[in-house]
Amino acid sequence: MNLFAALALALPALGAAIASAGARDARHVRFWSVAPIAAALFASLVVQVSHGGGGVSTSVTKLASAGSLTIWLGTRVTGLSALVGILVTVVALCVQVYSISYMRHEKRYPTYAALISLFTAAMLLVVYSADLIPLLVGWEIMGACSYFLIGHYWERPDARSGSIKAFLVTKAGDVPFLFGIAALGIRANSFRIDDVLHYVAVNGLPYAPLI
Q: What is the DSSP string of 155-207?
């Protein structure tokens, strides 16, 4: 199950990379914008079926050490994350399929399609991540993709100003989000979501609403 969760978030990232590399061939881009997300949807469905209705499944591997803390790379599947993974991939697949026709004359379609795929991968990283640090990375990639997508028609002043406004608003939220993650990790002596939840259940969490 966790292997399919990892595949679900890796496939759109792969599609984004290949679509960007083959930007001159429209058919190439269309295939690699749709097929990996369709495969990610299938993987998300497998995750949901495998999970059924029970418990939490976590699979991690050590990524790096930061002093006394360890950053883990892996997936954490719950009933909610399994459902949200399906929702993300269904919506992303609909967007990519619709965009094939809607943006067929758009010269910068390959860039757009690659950004949508990267956005999808980042969302799935947030959904399935077992550690708060990779989750934060996925969140920041989503913000970057939003900036570039809103400013897609960069020659238009309203698109440029809209992308800057979106960037400033998301960064205003990201900074306290980062402090909240740091507070949780330092308090629990771990950034793993399971460890943080266990610590809070056993010891409580001072200033929980603020964090």
A: TSHHHHHHHHHHHHHHHHHHHHHHHHHHHHHHHHT--BHHHHHHHHHHH--TT
The DSSP letter of residue 131 is: B
Of 121, 115, 9, nearest in space to 59 by CA: 9
Work out whether the CA dihedral 112, 114, 115, 117 comes out positive or negative: positive
Task: Give SS3 for 60.
Answer: strand
Burial 99-108 (b: 16+ CB within 10 A, else e): bbeeeeeeee
Residue 205 sits at φ, ψ, to 5 deg, of: -145, 105
pLDDT in tens, 65-79: 877 788 899 999 999
pLDDT digits (tens, 9 = 90+) for 46-97: 999 988 777 899 898 988 887 778 889 999 999 999 999 999 999 999 999 9
Q: pTM (2 decimals)?
A: 0.91
210 phi and psi, to 5 degrees?
A: -65, -45
Q: Which amino acid, 108?
A: R
